Batch of 4 targets.
Target 1
Amino acid sequence: MEGAIAIGAAVAVAVGALGGGIGQGFAGGKCFESIARQPEIADQVRTLLFITLAFIETLTIYGLLIAFMLVGKIG
Amino acid sequence: MIFGSSYEPLFHIGPVPVYDHVVAQWIVLFILAVICIAATRNMQVVPRGLQNFFEWVVEWCYNFFGGALGSEHAAKRYTPLLATFFLFILTSNYFGLIPGAGTIHGFVPPTSDWNITGTLATIVFFSVLIAGFREQGGHYLAHFVSPHWLFLPMNILEQFARPLSLTLRLFGNIFGHEMIVAFLVLMAPFLVPMPLQALGVLTGLIQALVFTILATSYLADVVGEGHH
């Protein structure tokens, strides 16, 4: 039973980080593209990027929270 | 430890148990109050030092939130609330950077407990409802059946999903950061957790901003429609 809980925690973090990582990669890449095209709006784009990354990271953090809860059950 | 509810209360006031996070919250409020009183004592026409800095903070808040809210009237009315959220959450997040935080009782970032982030999100929830009725009166109810009355359940669900996501986002980020630092300290006590703490400075600021920006956009939703 404890092994299953441990595997569940690992899957929660792994899948959450996978999706979030891909999403953040896309967001960051597009941000750099737009700054390279129009360097004068770099400040605005950077602010928006940080907020977007925070949103995406939230989903990963949900997975992390579930993992913490599961690990807490193993004790 | 998980969800911050299973450990012992610090002390009791009558029948009410008082936990670490509540004491930390009091300390944060005390710090903010002392700084504000110090900044507004002996105010001068030409500001210097602390007063100068705080005038800059207040002006920045008015411009930032006023720009997002869209009107001078709304900016005057709702900036105090939103700026309070920002300053309180920022100070709370940075509370975890004090040496000893997390190991000494009463020294934890208050926002790493979901009761406190939940309280903040509940305040946002009721502020949006009250602001809606205050700015638009009964017309605010029409907002729930737009674009069609079939969307009523979705609109109601959306109202309740907002505080949930606000709570979990702030709590998860700060709590997750605290736990990762705690694990690292267990594994390698010296120097290794330092880069992560530096990242915590960035995370604390961004999460305070994100919470406040979301609350602002929810308010801007209901405030802006009142002027059409």
Note: The mean pLDDT of chain A is 88.
Target 2
Amino acid sequence: MKITYTDVLVIGGGLAGLRAATGVKQRGHDCILLSLVPPKRSHSAAAQGGMQASLGNAIKGDGDNEDVHFEDTVKGSDWGADQKVVRMFTNTAPKAIRQLTDWGVPWTRVRKGDHQVIINAQKVTITEKEEAHGLITARDFGGTKKWRTCYTSDGTGHSMLFAMDNKAHEDGIEVRERMEAIALIHENNRCYGAVARNLMTGELVAYVSKSTVIATGGYGRIYKVSTNAVICQGMGQAIALETGVATLGNMEAIQFHPTAIVPVGILTTEGCRGDGGLLTDVDGYRFMPDYEPEKKELASRDVVSRRMVEHMRKGKGVKSRYGDHLWLDITILGREHIEKNLREVKEICESFLGIDPAVDPIPVRPTQHYSMGGIRTDYKGESQTLKGLFSCGEAACWDMHGFNRLGGNSVAETVVSGMLVAEYISDYCDSAESSIDINTSVIEGFIRKEKDKLDVLLEPKENAEDAYELRARMEEIMMDKVGIFRNGKDLQEAVDELEELLIRSRNIEVKAKILSASPELFNAYRTQRMLKLALCVAKGALERKESRGAHSREDYPERNDAEYLNRTITSWPDENQTMPKVEYEKIDIGEMELPPGFRGYGKDMTMHHPQSQVRQEEVDKLREELEAQGKDRFEIQEALMSYRDLLPERYRGKNERLYEKFEGEENV
Amino acid sequence: MSNIEEKGRMLKISILRFDPYIKGDVPRVETFEIEEAPGMTLFIALNEIRQHQDNTLKFDFVCRAGICGSCSMTINGRPGLACRALTSKMDVEISLAPLPVFELIGDLSVNTGKWMSGMNDRLETWIHHESGEECDVDRLEERMDPDLTDEIYELDRCIECGCCVAGCGTILMREDFVGAVGLNKIARYQLDPRDKRDDDDYYNLIGDENGVFGCMSLMGCEDTCPKELPLQSKIAYLRRKMVDLRNK
């Protein structure tokens, strides 16, 4: 049996995986990266709109800094996020973007002087500063106080991914394309790599490593219509879950993006609305200001998606053979702007809808888009229960998004988490505790077990099940019963039927009796695993009897901090179980820099935790005292919630800005 | 979008099939019939065929939105992205074959990734810094001319789908030809002030017949590029530049 040893095994070749790989390599560790597809084809490329980092170069981003970015992100998460992780993230995002610049990303730059932009359906002239000319610019995105989303036209993810993959080529990262990790190798609560299957030849091999990183993105494809690439099936989370040891966090936190095209679900970027595009209904009426007078189309994604559904339920949707939809109208932006800054959108409209978005409105509706949940880790990206297993990017729940992610924070998270987690992994690999203490017989046992499972799938069976059929039913259940608005009755039905499907999936028979490159075979074992994830999502949603961020219960419309200010932790201790184990991890208000409050959308229906007010008073008092003593914002922040020591030493520095020079240097 | 229900046409999709990993398999053309649905693309059609008619059919889709470059194949004789190919724009008889040039994985799946990775290594398609120079990530980024970054992005839009390589005449004669994709990369880095390589360095990479002097200006690359990159003018520009360098 083929066993390859390495220091770090990275599973997943998108932005997070590549960044983690280059990071550990730079620290002197050997690394092998497994990817289902050539890394440049990863789903990271689909992030059109941009990356949030508080550079503050653009005039509409003036005065921005880590504090504002922190506040936006925590509020956006509906207080579900780990605030220390958010702090680590917002401090590192400017560094990540500057490093990517150095590696070749052609970020769109500030042009000094007057520019016409569209704000709230009005043409407005803004004047960019002379001294900012040539620095990285930013656009507006939902749920942010400042224009903070840096971009390259509308191919941000593509440019970042190509620069990152090129960097991996420069660093000589060993990439194994078309290799799928199908099981983690572990013993005594310690992870030692993975069994992988070659998708061309069908060969099974083992990669044994000191540490293993899962960076396989989200699990959007458990839904029937998703903006996600077809490979985003959650296999990273699934193999972690199947260890019975590692845990998943907040799996029910699923984001629906307001503007995917109908019917195919391809995304049109939030940049459309950020740049001034409007949402209109069957009468051509702009409805968002009626629901959200302040933020309008640029409220947080969960909020806009719900408002759209509400509006369609009032009969204001546009009827089509694929169900109701609304319009995204970007004609107001003008052809020149669309062809330059929203070209990808234009191409998508032409290729898939046969329309010209400079002339026609775009048919859109909210569609599954992002998985806030994932492999539960600590701030270092390491599983809390399975030593040596790390995770970063969308695959992980470390947890910076809580129950709703802000647009532009996901590509930012990929590189920031990859950058930081690579340092913690390197520290771990440098330590004696990372020593590989596993017998080859145990490793071979893991390979054999996977081989047996594949053989079983091929065996002729009575009442054999068809994987495509089971999967299609799962996708429908998730769409219809675990969607934007949820309720106890539907969720219970979803859980019951998914459990039944899972049991049936044990009797799947693969008709084509080949073990090599067989699309039917990989669909079969992935369907079995996706059903487990779907159950984690549905069961978590059923048990969470409140509405928080993207998790919205019609029967429990209020956010209930008193009972549910916590993280959902799911695990699968016994492989014969048909239901995940659900537990909760408390979130400590006493440690928060920003205690839970009103998020600012609609009516405040929060059932507050008694401790929130106590902590708020503490924070206010401390802030007042320190301000009176003349302390600066860094000193005050440090006193409220110290986090800087958690960062790797090389990334602890302050970030320079035009208006925030380092000591002894002059501000502009 | 049309609200009218119509009975779809019956499409006849002929696919060149062969699995090199199955002993004794022989290349053959198989034809599948399916009813056309509104807005149908080859992505939808092929998945339907796999699900209902032949679940061994191999092809590659990832983003299914025209941005990842995975699904390039020969569609009615021309290289193109299958995910963006609307069946409504085609005759009822559609022929599909894998892209030529690239290693065949099976049926419509080819290993463009391996070819592109080799090209990237060979042309060192990354920013070359002065040795030992590392950027201070805490500091303001280097300024760049806004027009120049736009121009770089224009060439950075390549998705390495391989259509230009499959549509190239030179590569049939010179298997080491870097292709329009490779030459476009050099044009991209040559524009970029962050890359410290000079024209002599680029000459060493592409100043021969496997590089810019191999191109016969048949324009198959530009004709088939799904991203409409200005490949021909960039190749012509590089060629003039390289000729000037040799004549100095």
Note: Chain B touches chain A through 65 residues (CB under 8 Å).
Target 3
Amino acid sequence: MKLLLRRLGLYLITAWVAITANFLLPRLMPGNPIEQLIAKLQGRVTPQMIRAIKLQFGQGLNQPLIVQYGHYMSGLFHGQLGESITLSQPVSQVLGGEIWWTIGLIGTAAVLSFLIGTTLGVIFGWRRGSRLDAVIPGATFLQSLPYYFLGTLLIMFFAAKMHWFPIEGAYDTGAQTPGWNWGYILSVLRYSQLPIISIVLSSLAGWMLGMRNMMVTTISEDFVLMAVAKGLPRRKVMWHAARNAVLPSVANLALTIGFLVSGSLLVEQVFNYPGVGNLLVNAVGNEDYPLLQGIFLLVTFTVLGANFLADALYYLLDPRTRVSGQSQ
Amino acid sequence: MKHLQLPKSLKVRIGLAGLGMFILLTIIGPWIAPYDPNYTGFAQNASPSWNHLLGTTIQGQDVLSQLLIGCRSTMVVSFIAGFLATIISIVIGVASGYVGGKADEGLSVLSNVFLAIPGLPLLIVLNSYLPAGQQTNPLVIGSVIALTGWAWGARVLRAQTLSLRDRDFVEAARIIGEKRVRIMFGEIGPNLLPILTSSLLFTILYAVGVYTTLAFLGLTNVSTWNWGTMLYWAQSNNAGLAGEWWWVGPPGIMIALIGTSLALINFGIDEFINPRLRAGGVSAKLRRASGAPRRPRLGLTPVLHKSTEAGSR
């Protein structure tokens, strides 16, 4: 339990750092981006909006920083992320609508890629030194391909040329109306296939290579030799070793989720898929700072939450963490 | 320490050759580029030909010239970021592993916090607050990337320092009365070298990834040529949908190739640090030649003599 509590403490600190960075950055950056933004917005949006932005970023309020910080924190605890400049809606409302697309897409892809990659890694590690080793350089190359490039290639061949998948979007906007009807659900599933495949393909290799290396290391442990000596069937020995080799992969799960989420924000850009990544890029383009900040916080909190789940899983799987209560 | 020699592993050699090629391109790229990458007067959307080895874009620009010139910007930013991040991770990782106690706890929390914050969104936020003129400055972008990318290296270095700290040779140096800084850099430092190199390569890899990503999203100055901006223009002109592979392909493949080179070198370092990864990795050809079983057997590390050595024994 001690380990889990420590991790929870760490994530709380991280969340606090992210919030504080969000608060300080626009105020302390050279060139004062917020002042420039407000100057640009004069006449384009309502005076109330400008007042709201000024309030949120503490422009021309003549309050000491610490008082502003207090206001900012108490606002956050009440779920106030400010108003989006371009969409004229509360940021929390904008995000609440879009996040499910991202969670659905990236969540599915992450689970699939972990399962497939780890399984392949077990097999390749077990057969080390065989012809299967030839896959390693190929997998490394696949891993080095940027998400967005792989996505573009997939669209180019499988969607634009072969017409196996739809080219972009999240569902057939012409034929379907969003809601709980079969046509819509099936359409969403169909449109998510290629984005999911692209994420799985480019993140698969990392899991596979990591698992292979762990497997190779584990195989030379005494308990595996013991299992062989007992005359266990090979398949059982493999499973035996794999269960022990998977631990670092699970421990890495927490670290990788952040990378995965960061990278997948791009998939939405490539496939013109709705979601937080798309929102983020638009927010930067339009200098919609409140929205930008809200997205950053949301993504950070989601990643931290996912990390905590991964840690809890590790805690369940590895009894050693329960006994000694030390971090790895 | 043993005399350094050319690494035997084929993977590492390929990796080093690849990296060398990219460094060469970084230096001579702008000189050997056949045309001005901004010149728009060529035939539009032309597929590769002798005049334009990689074809032209929809604006009638030469793709090869953009690719060659873009190499420098991509590599310079990535290397700046990689080196800066590694310096931060050395200072924080080694100090926290060596000093221990409260300082270690504080620094560990710091690097764990930076590990947990998703890097790319943080980078996008930081980047968007930069004054417009600074977004093209490689040093500024490199520093910002380094700021989001040092934590992993610090963590690995801390773990290694921790395991080295109590070894006998360090203890001996301490008893002799060596200064702390000297022990850190003179005794522990050299033993961190493989891990340090690996973390440097990893960070450069990360920097190539995020820098081209930022550029692809159009968040850096899109009129500076690098491989990310090339893909940005290709994407915004739907080059993928139009099947213009000569425009989409080369920058993506270059990014992947530099990534592969760095990763291959890293593999070699991994095998150097962890010999077990090598034990089973005797190539099938060598095994057959020396009469060992076709498949490596569990629990047995094959003892192999190369045919020449075998003859002399």
Note: Chain B is about 70% helix and 0% strand.
Target 4
Amino acid sequence: MARRILIVDDDPNMLVLLADQLRDDGYETTTARNGHEALRLLSGGWPDLVVIDMMMPGMDGLSLAREIKARADLPIIVLSAVDAGDSKADLLEEVAEDYVTKPYYYPELRARISRVMRRLNDRLPRRALVLGPGLTLELHHRQAVVAGKPVRLTPTESRLLYALAANLGQTVVSETLLARGWADTEDADPSYVWVTMSRLRQKIESDPNNPRYLQTVRGVGYRLMADE
Amino acid sequence: MSDSRAREADRLPFRTRLTLALSAVALLPLLAFGALALVLGLVFLPSVAGLGAVLLVVLLVVALLTVPLVLFLVGEILRPLRTMVASVDRVSAGDLSEPVLVPGDDELGRLADSHNRLAADLQRRSVQVGRMLEAIGAMSPSHGVEALVQRASSDAARAFDLIEARVVLGSAADHPQGEVIPGESRPLRAELRAGEEALGVLVGLLPATRGWSRADQDLLELFASEVAVALRNAQLFATVESQNAQLRELDAAKDAFLRGVSHNLQSPLTSIRAYADQLATDRPDRRLEIIAEQSERLSRMVRQLLTVSRLESGAIKPRSEVMNLATRARRAWEALGAGPVPFSLNDESDGWLAIADGDQLDQVLWALLDNAVKYGGGAAIRVDVRPEPARARLRLMITDYGPGVTPEDRLRLFERFERGREQAGDGGSGLGLYVSRELCRAMGGELVIEPAGDAGAAFTVELPAEQAHEG
């Protein structure tokens, strides 16, 4: 069954073009010209993914993304001209699964979309996950609470932790982590997973050389453990 | 205690005792001397030769009798004085709690009373100073002027035990010193001055039963001046706060504006680019490629201008993601669409990944590669990527084989709107190197120009890196 994508953009040119391109790539698409129309469409049935333009008259992309997240944990990709220096970048990161800066290049967007689609079977409730007395994951806020202090996670780090947390206690092979963390256009290889895991340990483990939560299964992959 | 007090109360006044003692010391030896001389004289007088010996014996006996008498009297007189000295010592050491007990209405009694009053005054004032300091310490500019006025009023009443106290802002002349009427509560007044600036006045009412000395007034004025300083700080703080709020609003407005501009420029460029790509897929045409490349180029310039404005407000917050630097450089080169210019990539960084923000790194790479194409005059471009394990860094060097950079240009190269003089007419923004260096620094790296060599110009991007190994 084809995956369904809802595209919300006030620019009709973009809307038609993007819908055509995605349809050509086998997705089922619906389009909305603004936030209210999008919310109306959502009440009739959930798509698998929503692509939202950040700047729209009336309800802007950020407000719409929040409205959607308040109703269901749908993955959202935001198209935006916002860069890392923008005051809204942090807010955006909290609600958006990913954001693609404009002008986007379609193959890049397509790669990001298929990466998000790959993780659809991983389901985690949108709340804090307590792994032990010193570690709580708040992936919906892209942060971990380590020994009482919040630690920011990069989008990639939270994606990998999401995949591991969705399979808590089980080994997740490196290839799966690679596919969850990076889009195909990013040319990532297993070394990306290794370095990101090592950086994650620096952030969340009290003794990174002797990890308690984020364990390596040599030659296979990684697993996330909770304290007994 | 009560025994000794009762006993001491029976004693004669100090003046009388002193008089008696001095008289005794003067008269007793004389009387004793007379009496002895009389007795001995009656017994031994017939022998005139014995007179000298008699006198000697009399003197000795009298002296022996007098010494203990004098010691006893002196001790008696000094006893209350010693008590007082001990008490004054206690006061000097800061213990004001215990009064000196010297009974009677004589000079010593009055001295003790006077000392006790002084000690009580000192104690009261030290309590006042304590409360004052506490009140002053608790004043914070962030409380705001209104709250400070309220606090200072109640603190003043408490610290000085007043019936009421009020801090009035405005002209001090509106609140002149009230008249002091004996038997009625006494009006107090101290001006609030911070340096030259008069902020208002502190007025209060003292209970009729209490005295008000110069020292009390000095303390009140000291308190008033501290209150004035705190009030002025609060006013300044409020001003700074409102300016900050304005700046934040302006900043937010600027962000919104930039977001709008960026969106309004990038959205059509995205359409142009996408439609050109789509058309080219159906019917390949070099002209469509040029449309796509040039719209891409325009987008990059818009983004660079935005970055400059972000750099100026210090709002660049790079993300730290891992990436292969050589791969990133190759993709940046491909996106640049520089056509026939020969390009070689020499990657010696196997097993090393850079820690960088992808979008920002792309901006740096585009700018440097674009420069290399522009100033290399169509000659080959070479990229070298090498790790520097000791410093956990990756170094990416971009070399062109053009005319190079003149020594005078080298110094100004990284400044805003600077271009090499030779190439001043080519229409570049002059922002590329400035933006690139700032972005590299924001990512914890650096951008430098290599010393002039045989060939062209060489720029090196240095970035934090990690060696990859499973585990």
Note: The two ends of chain B are 84 Å apart (CA to CA).
